[in-house]
Amino acid sequence: MKKIVLLVVPILLLIGFNDTKQTSMKENKNQTIKQKIDSLIKLMTIEEKVGQMNQYNGFWDVTGPAPKEGNAEKKYEHLRKGWVGSMLNVRGVKNVLAVQKIAVEETRLGIPLIFGFDVIHGYKTLSPIPLAEAASWDLEAIKKSASIAAAEASASGINWTFGPMVDISRDARWGRVMEGAGEDPFLGSKIAEARITGFQGNDLSQVNTIAACAKHFAGYGFSESGREYNTVDIGMSTLHNIVLPPFKAAVDSGVRTLMNSFNEINGVPVTGSSYLQRDILKGKWNFDGFVISDWASIGEMISWGHAKDKREAAKIAVTAGSDMDMESNTYIEELAQLVKDGFIDEKLLDDAVSRILRVKFELGLFEDPYKYCVETREKETIGNPKHHEAVLDMAKKSIVLLKNENNLLPLKKEGQNIALIGALAADKNSPLGSWCIASDDNTAVSVLEGMQAYENNSLVYNKGTDVSLGKTTFVKEVKINTSDKSEFNDAIQAAKKADVVVMVLGEHGFQSGEGRSRTNLQLPGVQQELLEAIHEVNPNIVLVLNNGRPLAITWADEHIPAIVEAWQLGTQTGHAVAQVLYGDYNPSGKLPMTFPRNVGQVPIYYNYKNTGRPVDKDNNVFWSHYIDVNNTPLYPFGYGLSYTRFEYSSLKLNGSSFSLGEEISVSVDIKNIGKRDGKEVVQLYIRDLFGSITRPVKELKGFELVNIKAGETKTIQFTLNKETLGFYNNESEYVIEPGDFKVFVGGSSAETVEADFELK
Ligand code: NOJ
Hints:
The chain contains 24 helices and 28 strands. It is an alpha/beta fold. Among the domains are: 44-113 and 292-299 and 310-383, Glycoside hydrolase, family 3, N-terminal domain (TIM Barrel), CATH 3.20.20; 391-601, Rossmann fold (3-Layer(aba) Sandwich), CATH 3.40.50; 646-759, Sandwich (Immunoglobulin-like), CATH 2.60.40. The strands form eight sheets. A six-stranded mixed sheet has the order 11-18-17-16-12-13. It has a five-stranded parallel sheet with strand order 4-3-2-1-10. 53% of the residues are buried. 1-deoxynojirimycin binds next to loops.
């Protein structure tokens, strides 16, 4: 090994890696990095270049179809040859250090690896699932949550997360809606920005920050019929106005990497789409980071019927701008030969490699490849009590109060007999949510434990029924209990004696996430039957929902007096839920996705188009509707109650007619008309009434989170400008058109005060 170290050092010196001189100018720094990259690339063989573009999965965790048996030896051999640029799913200081040492000390050039991991909603200390966090509309809290995830992951050797997922989706059947920010591109863009700044901080070379990855570029959230990995067929207007804006926001906020996706768009698998990766991302948007493929997606172009073999797949992907290959082995097997045979210009490799090296330089890996591998820091950081406080705060902010008839909530703190029912109430694993690979099993505070902290009531717990059967894991399908009702009776007896019944029902944490599409959006298994059976003996029920997607709970909405949306809230779930139920926290969450009345309404979303037949005054059949259910959702986007109430009035604009480019000021009064202090998400929507491309009936263009004391009135100001009044035409050009507009402000997309204005 010594001999190899001797070989490496002169090369590092030659290109000035030991130059620690600090420059204050970002441009100078970029210039220096560019020079270093250029010198390094000159030293690299074709195989070493391809190596930088090759990412292997580690040797323990798997987050995709299992790699071939016995290929660990091959991976080690390739590591030693310098044929690997990155590893995913290697975590923990000891493990990362061991693998990094091979890259740095045993390869010819000693180029450090970048270690990627799915840090999606926390690392060991888990935050609420991303969809839940989005329900807070609290960008500071979301940013903080990402920064805590980065602190823990980086202390464990990781320097790159495969997050945030910024896919917009309107389809609750798709399991991955739990990983995103919901259905709206404006909210999605703001949250993308918050998460990226949280992960990356202001300076990527700081040891507690990690490179972010906006995924999945692009269109994955529109998988046909919500079926995972399915085709996507969307028009240009949806692509440019709904799908791409959060990616653009991610690039504008400095995201260092993007991941492409498994789907095709318009017949082209996006891994091989030059239009998306070269023309838009690296061309129009000037993105200078790198693009990683999704797990095996380069090779999967063969199954799609787009490439005839791995050689062709590699050629298509690299030409289209996929810089790094995650686990399809296509680049490592094919690229070097393709260059040697003259089928690919080596310049394509140089471009990809320089992008990858740039991020490694920015992370400071060349200065100190072991900077993320300090065991004392790992011990101090992971599970730090401050992180628990922060994820508890995030969890409370993520809860949405859906219904509260006769102020059943908050619960009285003493003298009550409470029956707590539902297997999920005592579950310490499911609330961790789907991306919990780095956390330890059963480490969530359960709702039962959270409620036990309120000691002056009598609390009786009964499972009632199991939701899932057997041990469930990240890679295995959840087995749902669809028949066993043997414990119904115990729960019914407990409910009969109770003043209030709290039922925790919904999906197991592993029923949403990757590979978990559903065709049925009701409570899984026999839980609906349990709910109805308990309701028969005691209708005084608070239903606490656990779920990673909108559910169709129409019966519950009609019969159950209080409903609390508690998603999967991470490590501190139980305390967050109990504090909301007992009124120590006044909920303020608002839905980031529309809840349908039934699955047949899906895809359903607030920013729909009016159609040519929006109504029929004569009550004939010839208008856009269903004959068996209303067009409206069960709960609209932006909806959520509080223990107080807010009244909106005096919507004012600083004029009624404006010239293009002029800023428009909008103000509105919000009064807290209840008896408690509360927090409201004030939402501003517009409608552009007539457009060369038809415009949605409402588009979110601003929001603000305000604390308002009981009885107090606050005036909130918004500004509409050229960034918010235009849209993308089908040539992907941003245009603002003169004409009539409406502006709406309210506490949900469905309840608003409105005014009109004109753009000239
Ligand atoms: C496949 C998923 O689609 C992607 O989001 C994830 O980052 C990779 N697997 C790595 O685990």
